[in-house]
Fold this protein.
Amino acid sequence: MSIFNDTDTSYRTPYEPPPAASRMAGVRFGNTRDVIVLWSGESDEISEYVRGLLFIAVVTFVIFVTWGLLLCIFMCLGRDRVGALSGRPFEREAPLEERNNSKKQDDDEATKNRKDLYKSGDAWNSMATRSRIVFLFSGLVVITFSILLATRGLTELQTTVDTVHDSSVVVQKITEEGREIINTGLRDLRSRAASVRITLLNELNRDIFCPGDPSLENSDIGLEVRKHVDSAMELLEELENFQDGRLADFDEALLSVEDAADSVEQTSDETDLLGWKSMILLIPYTVIAALLMSATVMAFFDVSFPVLDILINFLLLPTFIVMTSGACVLASLTAIVAAVNSDFCLPGGNETASPDENVVGIMFAEGYVEDDFELQMVRYFAEQCTSDTNPFAPLISYVPEMRDNQLALNEVVKILRDEDQLAELSLYCNREFTALDAQIDNMNVILTVLIDSLTRLLDLVSCQRIIPIYTDTIYDAACDYSTKAMFWIFCCAIVLGTFGLIMITLRASFKLSVDAKPETAPVSASPKKKSDEDRGLKEHGSPASPVQATPYAAVHPPEEAPPGEIRVNPNDDDVYTSYTGHVSTESTPFPREYVPPLTRGTHYMDDNTVVREKKASAVDVD
């Protein structure tokens, strides 16, 4: 792995926009999606962005708040106005009536005994049962999505945190090692290199280097030595200037990255979304929902435990209301965070864009300019080392130059250590070169350390090493895992809030139904009608029963009716009453004597006593 290997491009990873990012982008109604305005925008631009950002969150929150207010209003109205929506128990519906169970008495009996029989209604068609079925279904949904919130939403979010943590650990190690190389491998050599440089400058002074012939016109060996040493001196001077300039900027950039990585590592290390502290917030959703469902099943079978009722009314239900409210708030907040995350991963809502644009844009928003080393470094890695500006180019160029100069100095050392050539040069220049030999050795050592330090430093910041960290952090953690997490958390929170409110709305389902008395139909006749009936009795001298003749009775005379008795078809829904009296048995709609109309639900005995039924639709029994 080396920064000098330009042919290796396997580290480059194309950006694939996550589907969840486009789903959570939301509707902005023409407002900007540029997340960079949060860093660099004016107040008007920030307000515009926030307005578009809050739309979905506000709509979601208003819906839930309105629902909650309606529940409070229903509770105040009471059961008489809104029924079980007030939270009061259901009333058992009025029982249905048995009709086709009449029996005939012997024909010689003069009267018919009558009695109302009732049967209970179909329990599966009652309002209470339908409400309990919906309540149980909602409870299952709450339990299911609370589990999904933990297994999908929080798991994806924890994956995001873990990825960022791992990346921050690697970055911190790189920055620590890089700063150590700069401070010990480069800056610590500065004083030593300066001392060697001063000594060499003195040794290479024309009057000092070769007093016998300062111009070295007639010494090829002297010219060669002088040329190589001068090149090494220039390189040391450039390196010293680089240490004061670009290398210092590099060190400051590494220090900033190290501090940020350390902060991220500490925060992510303390974040455990799947630990017991987080699970203790999700377990009540399943436990409380299960207990409420159990109480609902018992209420269906009219079973109740006083202790459980007290526990539900004073602890479980209030806790469930608070947790449902928390889910509604979580849905609204998640909508905001998810929209910001989507804007970062899809700049401008364009699915062909990448977050690299926003990464560089944030650097500009923070006040960096084109010539800043930090900006050039971030852009270089954000563009996956395809940028025309390589901030490490000066360092890269120094390494081969230092290697060439080191080879040249080795040639000088060979000359100075060749006895014949050294003797010739000493004789020609009329001086000893022992001190120069020692200083060249020192320079050679310095160049060796510099080459090794720069090579290690460049390897640390090579594209093959940094780009995978960048893509893991930005592409995977910040855009892929996080958008999935936000999507699942938002959906689960919406479902938990909605079905939790349904369970709260139908809270009467887990309460025992109360008895309701069946309503009695009015049977008393009006005063005018009664006076007419009384006149009929006086005029005709026979007891009458106020029943209106039916088409069946008018067309078909009663079968096997004994003298003095008319029996109306008991299967007819309109008339179920018989009477006795002195009437004709001819097959005519009415007897010759006046027969007042009969009233449903009543009949007359021989002593003209009226017996009123409980209901209008009674049946004949023994």
Remarks:
- The longest helix spans residues 127-203.
- DSSP finds 18 helices and six strands in the chain.
- The CA atoms of residues 187 and 243 lie 7 Å apart.
- The longest strand covers residues 96-98.
